[in-house]
Amino acid sequence: MDSKDRQIIRALQRNGRITNQELADEVSLSPSPCLRRVRNLEKAGIIRGYSAEVDEKAYGLPVTVFVRIKLERHNEEDVQRFESHIQRIDEVLECHVMTGAIDYQLRVLVPDLEGYEDFVRARIHTIGGIASIDTSFAYGVVKKTNVLPKLS
Amino acid sequence: MDSKDRQIIRALQRNGRITNQELADEVSLSPSPCLRRVRNLEKAGIIRGYSAEVDEKAYGLPVTVFVRIKLERHNEEDVQRFESHIQRIDEVLECHVMTGAIDYQLRVLVPDLEGYEDFVRARIHTIGGIASIDTSFAYGVVKKTNVLPKLS
DNA sequence: TTAAAAATTGGCAGAAACTGCCAGTCAGGT
DNA sequence: ACCTGACTGGCAGTTTCTGCCAATTTTTAA
Q1: What is the per-residue pLDDT across A57-99, written as a single tens digit (0 to 9) for each?
Q2: Are residues B33 and B62 in the same domain?
């Protein structure tokens, strides 16, 4: 991966549906080698895929919640159990394993506060083995981008 | 926005570069009306744009950090100052305004721990007016998707 | 420094996809 | 039943994609 690949990556993050011709222009290549580089990045798994960015509020899910979870036990079985459950919950868009006092942080999307209560009861507590849940609601977005910073 | 639009949205979140013909197939429309719906969703701002999903590690930024920040004062001026600074920092991919004890939560991408130290010193503390910073490192991803849940 | 080998590039042409236009269809209201 | 408005599907000209090959650039080794 050279600097041209990185240029391509950042251009595709800014606009994932740019045509190959425009992309080629932007990175100063002709369409053929440009497309080949894109395909190589895809095959190598560096570009995982493409996605539409959607206004969550307009879609009907205006409430973003960050949920910080601690497990009671950390043996292989309970951890596996928790993680495989989480992966199947559609409302959970992200789940990170964390260092420090908390084990996991989730980003969850719900239609309203009641929806969140339902979510915790029906989806989280039913997993079992959870020591604590700490909830923070996000009520505004200052910044949200997919474009990775330039490497210095 | 009807259920067909929602179908289109979810299909485009799963694959943002699907061709219009395949998309039309998937949602049982012919290409013309399908494309028109997509364009309308774009014009209405419901589809904000399209983006490539990139492997952050392969790109060279393997460390994800969540930073929870409290401000000293919450008057209009200091808040504006903080938020406009944050928007200009490339390493900050997300910044949410939070309820509760913390004012903001940031998602930050850095190459390593040293990079994070530099980031805090050079980018965050220089803003001024910050009461506290709480850092959590993410060292694994259990789930990460852009696809919004179906509305029940 | 030179020469051979490898990787990358650019152009071309057939195939695929996009997109504006128009007539036909369907749903809701009077 | 009729009218209105919104939506649909098909068509055709235009644009874009993409596999192939020769030419160029870069790398490697002598």
Answers
A1: 999 999 999 999 999 999 999 999 999 999 999 999 999 999 9
A2: no
